[in-house]
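To illustrate the input format used throughout this study, we show a single complete record. The first block contains the structure-token representation of the backbone; no residue identities are included at this stage. The design step must infer an amino acid for every position from geometry alone.
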């Protein structure tokens, strides 16, 4: 057999040469596509379910949220273990599967069981959701959203956070290989209705009435259409609040004399921010906002970072004047130093 192979190779040098060149080209292409990272990802095959319930203590989180989710996951085949931790306002349940289990099949099974778990969780307590398909080593790119020198007083911490959430993050989510983008720092903008107990008492209005009025009157609705041959007129009502004045003008109820009681009659409507437990600062230059790009499990870190960098170049062009995005952690630099 080997004699025939040697004989064929000697008398067909052109074919052997072409095959050798093809093999070298294929090897070079495969080398360029090889997923190289600084550290091996040894994370187990797992699916994480988290539930946010800001008003509940750890004991209620464990009894009302974590336990029903754990019970619902008990019948999924191929699982190795189910573990959880419950803390104030947060439940995290981790379902670990065998290494041979397809992760997307596992997430589908967990998603189906979550419907059962939701039926056992009291209404208003929280809604279980799947965590992004990433791992502890998926943090490949971190960046800052900050005002350029000379523009520090022009943009507040709330405005920077709004740009991060609505401009930067939303465009990054469409990048190939990106599982999620987490936001940090700044102030999360909220529209707040601060009730005045004295006004409520004097007008005979309850807190629940104000809550239901704001919830019911902050939405658009459709009314089908009117057929006016040969055209049709589509009917819609515009009730979505777009400003503080719109919220203040919502009718809560009517008095015995028929006069409307508005939200602004019993409360102060203003812009506020969600409660936060920390801040993001840059050296001694004050507050900034930032983001963390999470890589999809099994993706090529070098390709994902390259795609993020290209998308960042486009995002910078969409930001207001005086705002910039600056990376401060790039996994590609660590990879280059590790292999060179």
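Output of the design step:
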């Amino acid at each position: 057999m080997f004699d025939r192979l040697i004989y064929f190779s000697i008398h067909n040098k052109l074919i052997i040469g072409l095959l050798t060149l093809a093999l070298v080209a294929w090897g070079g292409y495969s080398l360029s596509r090889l997923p190289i990272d600084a550290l091996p990802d040894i994370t187990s095959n797992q699916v994480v379910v988290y539930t946010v319930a800001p008003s509940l203590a750890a004991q209620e989180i464990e009894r009302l949220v974590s336990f029903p989710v754990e019970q619902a996951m008990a019948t999924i085949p191929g699982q190795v273990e189910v573990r959880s931790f419950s803390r104030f306002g947060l439940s995290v349940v981790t379902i670990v599967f065998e290494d041979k289990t397809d992760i997307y099949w596992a997430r589908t099974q967990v998603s189906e069981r979550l419907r059962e778990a939701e039926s056992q969780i009291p209404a208003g307590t929280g809604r279980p959701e799947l965590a992004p398909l990433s791992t502890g080593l998926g943090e490949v790119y971190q960046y800052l959203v900050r005002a350029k020198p000379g523009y520090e007083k022009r943009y507040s911490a709330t405005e920077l956070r709004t740009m991060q959430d609505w401009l930067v993050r939303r465009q990054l989510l469409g990048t190939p290989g990106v599982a999620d983008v987490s936001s940090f720092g700044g102030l999360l903008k909220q529209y707040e209705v601060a009730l005045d107990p004295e006004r409520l008492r004097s007008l005979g209005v309850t807190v629940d009435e104000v809550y239901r009025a704001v919830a019911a009157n902050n939405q658009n609705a459709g009314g089908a259409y009117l057929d006016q041959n040969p055209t049709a007129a589509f009917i819609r009502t515009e009730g979505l609040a777009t400003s503080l004045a719109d919220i203040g003008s919502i009718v809560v109820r009517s008095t015995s004399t028929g006069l409307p009681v508005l939200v602004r009659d019993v409360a102060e409507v203003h812009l506020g921010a969600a409660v936060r437990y920390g801040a993001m600062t840059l050296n001694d230059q004050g507050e900034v906002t930032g983001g963390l790009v999470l890589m999809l499990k099994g993706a090529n870190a070098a390709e994902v970072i390259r795609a993020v960098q290209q998308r960042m170049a486009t995002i910078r062009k969409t930001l207001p004047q005086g705002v910039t995005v600056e990376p401060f952690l790039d996994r590609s630099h660590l990879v280059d130093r590790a292999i060179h």
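Structural context for interpreting the output: The radius of gyration is 29 Å. The domain at 46-130 is CATH 3.30.70.1430 (Alpha-Beta Plaits).
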